[in-house]
Amino acid sequence: MAGQGGFYELWSDELVGDLAQMCRTISSGPGELEALVPDAEQIREMLGACFAASIERDEGRETRFSMLFRPAELSEADYRFERPLPLDAAGIRRLAAGLNLRRGYILVAPSQGALAMMGVTIVPRQRGIVQGHGGAQGFAVQVFGAGVLVMQYMSARIAAHRRGRTVCYRPPIPQLASLYAVTQLPLSPESVTPPQAGGYLAEAMVRLGHGGTLLFLSKAEPDWRTRLRCITRFEAAPPCRAVTEAALAADRENNALQSLHTKFPDFGAEFGDAAGPLSNLVVRGSFDLQPHLDWLAQLTAADGMTVVDGDLTLLAFGVMVQPSVEGAPEFAIEVRDPFEPQPARAVLADLGGGRHQSAARACSEFRDAVAFVASQDGELTSMRWDSSADVLVVTKHLELSL
User: Which helix (H) or strand (E) holds 181?
Assistant: First the structure.
């Protein structure tokens, strides 16, 4: 098709028809939701434009963005253009430079017989450790790099495309549910750390743009160094409880805020509409867990593994796990890759370099542990032991769910 470099031919009639049908099935009925479903040709047009834009570079940087289909009559863009703009690769590249892949969408809608860019919809970051879009209200395409596209509808991942191959998910994968399933931390029963801390740490490691490994032990094992056969470059003595204390402080704040509103329901009423924000500021102004989690994620940039226990107490960073010795026990590995239709069995050498292999050996030794492994190219992998199947589960491309 003109202006798209011929990339429309990559998207077969069967594929775009299936995607449209999946969207209609999720909407499950007529009415406003049905109006959010693009037809097959509109899906083809979006995918072709997104693919063409993905292989362009802006001042040497990859073009990454999210695009959302919203019919013109339902459009509620935060920032609406004075007039519709053509949906072409160069225009998308220029617009994408000013947007965050995970914090906003390029809004497209029908205009004069074709799709056009109508504006941008911004998804604000809320206070606290909340990550991701929280669910696209309509059909969306996220572009993670050259030729890497993920298709979503109403917060469910329905397909992914990479290297000329497209995988459709039947049934669709709920984004947040799948994220929490693989980022759930082995927190101790006494921990007050929010359960979504794992997802936030995973996102922070990707956002910082460096490679690294974060290993979560369910508890502080006295012999963890010996069992890992490791050299610790930067060991904490005693273990550092900065993140733990921040979580406790945030928990105390929350309890104090609830108590304040219970005892004084009219607190700040004289300030009118500012009463709610004011009371929140008074009680919650001192502590925020987010910077502490960012600090923990930043430590993973140092060579070696960062190791924490079940309440996020930092044991050490720069931990170098020694190569496996001859005769070390082997273990089963199952790799789950969103770009492959089925899970696959693997051996240790299939996982990649020393960073991934060290994390795998650690999770096979500590079978209630969880590891996140980030690569410099933005790929994120999680590892955890599945006791029911006696296998190490390796989930690749976790960055697609963040």
Answer: helix 175-183
Give 234's strand partners.
Answer: 317
Question: Would you say the CATH fold of 184-401 matches that of 7-177?
Answer: yes
Instruction: List, as own/partner pairs, every contact residues 163-172 make where C-beta atoms lie below 8 angstroms and the sequence separation is at least 24, other chains included.
Output: 163/339, 164/10, 165/339, 166/11, 166/15, 167/338, 167/339, 167/340, 167/341, 168/15, 168/18, 168/19, 168/22, 170/22, 172/22, 172/26
Spell out the domain ranges in the chain: 7-177, 184-401
Threshold 0.85, pTM exceeds:
no
User: What DSSP assignment string belongs to 239-287?
Assistant: EE-HHHHHHHHHHHHHHHHHHHHHH-TTTTGGGGGGHHHHHHHHHHSS-
Burial class of residue 373, CB neighbours in 10 A (0-12, 13-18, 19+): buried
Q: What is the CATH number of domain 7-177?
A: 3.40.1700
Query: Are the CB atoms for 307 and 224 separated by under 8 Å?
Result: yes
* H or E element, residue 319: strand 314-321
Contact 301, 210 (CB under 8 A): yes
Cβ–Cβ under 8 Å, residues 31 and 59: no
- Looking at residue 38, what is its pLDDT? 92
How far apart CA 350 and CA 332 sit, in angstroms, is 12
Name 141's bridge partners: 67, 151
- The span from the first CA to the last CA of the chain, in angstroms, equals 33
Going by C-beta distance under 8 Å and a sequence separation of 6 or more, which residues neighbour residue 346? 333, 334, 335, 394
Rg (CA), the chain: 23
| Spatial distance between the Cα atoms of 382 and 168, rounded to a whole number of angstroms | 22
Residues 214-257 have pLDDT tens digits of 999 988 788 999 999 899 999 999 999 998 888 888 777 777 76
DSSP 212: E
Report the sign of the C-alpha dihedral through residues 42, 46, 51, 52, in that order: positive
Question: For the structural domain made of 184-401, what CATH number should be given?
Answer: 3.40.1700.10
Bond before 171 cis per omega within 30 degrees: yes
